[in-house]
């Protein structure tokens, strides 16, 4: 068993059962045995004391009866002294017989006449008393013992013990008499009897026998404690003690079992929550079953655990957010490196090539070729500058640190300036319907030109051959809507939603046919929103690809 416990950790319920067994069951069992033994000894002493007391009570009753009879006979004798004739004496005795039914017969006789009264036997419920008179005669009195029996056990009528009164080896009176009990009680009497005090005898401890041998009058009183009395006094109390101990243990088991049940459920909830947390489920909470059996410590632990899990969950969400941001930064860095290395290489190569050509001394370069080379260098330098400006404006947009100087600007002049700054290498037709608009918008002049330059260049790059770029407008409430439209294949809705992200292009890396960093629409959206406007993208059969810029109008 020791090896079993050393190899296996016990559960709380198992430990509580063991604790109950050693701390409750065994002590209560031992206490029950001790209490029952003490109770048995106490009841045994009470049975002995009660039997001796009953013997004394019967003895006192006999003494009272004997004293009363002697006094009455003495009074009768004293009265008879006054009567001179036998007829008067007999008349007086008849009067006494009528008034005192205890006497069966009263007579004044000579000594030789007393023998005839010996015919009265105590077994016939009669006893003879005789007292001498002053003239030598005797007063003979025959008493009815039935009357004596009624008075003798009057106070003991409810007691279940067997009581026997013996005189001249004859049973004079008895209570709860049984022949078997009488014979057993007499058979166990010791040969030598002590006089005038109750003596306990008998072989059965729980059924004590008591005798009291009276010297005057000569009588023997025997009290037998029956099995029924013992059962009521000892067995009944013992059963009550055992029953109370059993009920107490059952109550303890029930209360402890109920307490253990709720405690086990709550601790199991804690275990499940800990296991869930260990597996990465940071949304799991402890749901305690609270009642009067739930300890304060468990409730406190559950609340603190849930509070801890909330903090962990918040930290986990923040960590995921930071990881996502870090991933985006890494992607941005990777895309920026790829874009810079890819997009910057072409203009730098052109600049380097034409610069090297102009610096050569071994060849003669005419003026036309030199001017052409310088234009290419300028064009590629401007392209490189614009890409650098796009890259530099991104941190300001992301950090919401973009400085704009808002003022009223005529929208037609902005569009015209933007068209002039656009690189239209493909010589696309640009239809400007905004030149007819005289409204003014609130914007930053340089920033709004940068917006429309990017939009018009994108429209040129991503339009079909022999298609025109249409710039139109409409007024909606307090805002002016400028629409830049080009003919292009319908872009799926999912793709359309991502075009405002950094480094996102309509054509991916596998189908790319145009140059660009993929930052144009991202920068445009940031600039428009910084000036209090809004930009939306549309792609359908009517317009192909359309960008709408909503800018606030100058209130009139």
Structure, explained:
With 556 residues, the chain is α+β, with helices and mostly antiparallel strands. The chain folds into four domains: 214 residues, no CATH class; 88 residues, no CATH class; 47 residues; 151 residues, Histidine kinase-like ATPase, C-terminal domain (Heat Shock Protein 90), CATH 3.30.565.10. Helices cover 53% and strands 16% of the residues. It is built from 13 helices and 15 strands. A five-stranded antiparallel β-sheet has the order 5-4-8-7-6, with helices on both faces. A hairpin with a 7-residue loop joins strand 6 and strand 7. Helix 8 packs antiparallel against helix 9 and helix 9 packs across helix 13. It is rod-shaped.
Tally of alpha and pi helices: 13
Using only CA atoms, what is the Rg? Answer: 65 Å
The separation of the N and C termini measures 98 Å
Strand order of the largest sheet: 5-4-8-7-6
Q: In which range does the helix fraction lie? A: 40-55%
Q: How would you characterize the largest beta sheet?
A: 5 strands, antiparallel
Structural class: alpha+beta
- Quick check: average pLDDT? 80
The gross shape turns out to be rod-shaped
Order of helices and strands: HHHEEEHEEHEEEHHHHEHEEHEEHHEE
Strand content: 15-25%
pLDDT below 50 for ≥5 consecutive residues: which ranges? 509-514
Instruction: Work out the number of β strands.
Output: 15
Number of domains: 4
Features:
alpha+beta, 16% strand
Secondary structure layout plus pairing:
Blueprint: H1 2-7, H2 12-80, H3 86-99, E1 103-109, E2 126-132, E3 138-144, H4 145-152, E4 162-167, E5 170-175, H5 179-187, E6 199-201, E7 209-214, E8 219-224, H6 227-278, H7 296-343, H8 345-359, H9 367-398, E9 407-410, H10 411-421, E10 430-432, E11 440-443, H11 445-461, E12 469-476, E13 479-486, H12 493-497, H13 520-530, E14 534-538, E15 545-552
Parallel strand pairs: 10-12
Antiparallel strand pairs: 1-3, 2-3, 4-5, 4-8, 6-7, 7-8, 9-11, 12-13, 13-15, 14-15
């Amino acid at each position: 068993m020791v090896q079993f416990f050393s190899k296996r950790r016990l559960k709380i319920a198992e430990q509580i059962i063991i604790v109950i067994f050693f701390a409750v069951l065994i002590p209560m069992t031992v206490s029950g045995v001790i209490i029952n033994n003490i109770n048995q000894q106490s009841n045994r002493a009470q049975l002995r004391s009660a039997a001796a007391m009953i013997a004394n009570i019967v003895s006192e009753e006999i003494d009272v009866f004997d004293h009363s009879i002697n006094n009455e006979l003495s009074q009768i004798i004293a009265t008879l002294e006054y009567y001179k004739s036998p007829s008067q004496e007999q008349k007086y005795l008849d009067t006494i017989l009528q008034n005192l039914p205890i006497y069966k017969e009263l007579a004044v006789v000579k000594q030789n006449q007393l023998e005839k009264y010996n015919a009265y036997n105590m077994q016939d419920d009669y006893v003879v008393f005789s007292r001498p008179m002053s003239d030598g005669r005797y007063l003979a009195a025959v008493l009815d013992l039935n009357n004596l029996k009624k008075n003798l056990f009057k106070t003991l009528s409810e007691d279940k013990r067997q009581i026997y009164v013996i005189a001249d080896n004859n049973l004079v009176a008895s209570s709860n008499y049984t022949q078997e009990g009488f014979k057993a009680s007499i058979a166990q009497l010791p040969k030598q009897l002590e006089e005038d005090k109750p003596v306990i005898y008998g072989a059965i401890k729980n059924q004590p026998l008591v005798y009291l041998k009276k010297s005057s009058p000569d009588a023997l009183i025997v009290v037998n404690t029956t099995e029924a009395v013992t059962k009521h006094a000892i067995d009944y109390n013992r059963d009550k003690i055992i029953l109370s101990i059993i009920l107490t243990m059952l109550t303890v088991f029930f209360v402890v079992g109920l307490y253990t049940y709720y405690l086990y459920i709550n601790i199991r909830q804690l275990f499940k929550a800990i296991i869930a947390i260990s597996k990465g489920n940071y949304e799991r909470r402890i749901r305690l079953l609270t009642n009067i059996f739930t300890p304060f410590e468990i409730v406190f632990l559950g609340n603190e655990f849930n509070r801890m899990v909330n903090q962990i969950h918040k930290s986990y969400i923040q960590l995921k957010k930071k990881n996502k941001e870090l991933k985006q930064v890494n992607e941005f860095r990777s895309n920026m490196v790829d874009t810079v290395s890819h997009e910057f290489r072409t203009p730098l190569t052109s600049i380097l090539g034409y610069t090297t050509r102009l610096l050569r001394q071994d060849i003669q370069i005419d003026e036309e070729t030199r001017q052409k080379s310088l234009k290419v260098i300028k064009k590629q330098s401007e392209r490189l500058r614009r890409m650098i400006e796009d890259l530099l404006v991104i941190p300001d947009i992301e950090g919401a640190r973009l400085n704009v100087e808002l003022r009223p600007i005529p929208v037609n002049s902005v569009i015209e300036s933007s068209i002039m700054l656009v690189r239209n290498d493909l010589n696309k037709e640009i239809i400007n319907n905004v030149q007819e608009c005289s409204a003014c918008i609130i914007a930053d002049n340089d920033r709004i030109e940068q917006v429309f330059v990017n939009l018009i260049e994108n429209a040129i790059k991503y339009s079909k051959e022999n298609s025109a770029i249409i710039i139109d407008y409409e007024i909606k409430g307090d805002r002016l809507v400028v629409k830049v439209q080009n003919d292009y294949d319908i872009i799926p809705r999912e793709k359309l939603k991502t075009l405002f992200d950094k480094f996102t292009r309509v054509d991916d890396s596998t189908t790319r046919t145009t140059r660009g960093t993929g930052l144009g629409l991202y920068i445009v959206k940031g600039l428009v929103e910084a000036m209090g406007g809004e930009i939306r993208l549309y792609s359908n059969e009517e317009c192909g690809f359309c960008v709408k810029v909503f800018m606030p109008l100058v209130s009139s």
